[in-house]
């Protein structure tokens, strides 16, 4: 019953998500073909979903200009941004929660996640818990790694167009 592996996995999730966020900003830099400091300054105060939504629109325009797609939004890229935003929601759930240690009836170490959300319009405080077992986060971490690979494919495509 060692919870250290779960703590490492939770940290791995958060750090991998930060890599996704950095890749989104880097792709934005490549698409707008600008000084990275300009893009970093413009995106510094944006929440992650705003960065992803902006890049979705920027990439669609880029794809139209360079003949990659005349559709709006760019179908493949928009699907990728949707996947990213889903993971961003999950990241927020994980980071903005309280945790306690848990041991299953089988003696397996786990974490009990307890988020607290206020719903002022309903006058309630919502607390829907989740038990996180060792295998729970692995598919989400793999999804982020897949997203990083997809972002890299788009980044390289943009570099090839900008620097033939």
Provide a descriptive summary of the structure in words.
There is one protein chain. By secondary structure, the chain is α+β, with helices and mostly antiparallel strands. The protein has one domain (3-162). Helix content is 62%, strand content 14%. It has five helices and five strands; from the N terminus they run ααααβββββα. The strands form two sheets. A three-stranded antiparallel β-sheet has the order 1-2-5. A two-stranded antiparallel sheet has the order 3-4. α3 packs antiparallel against α4 (75-95). It is elongated. The protein starts with a helix and ends with a helix. The mean pLDDT is 88.
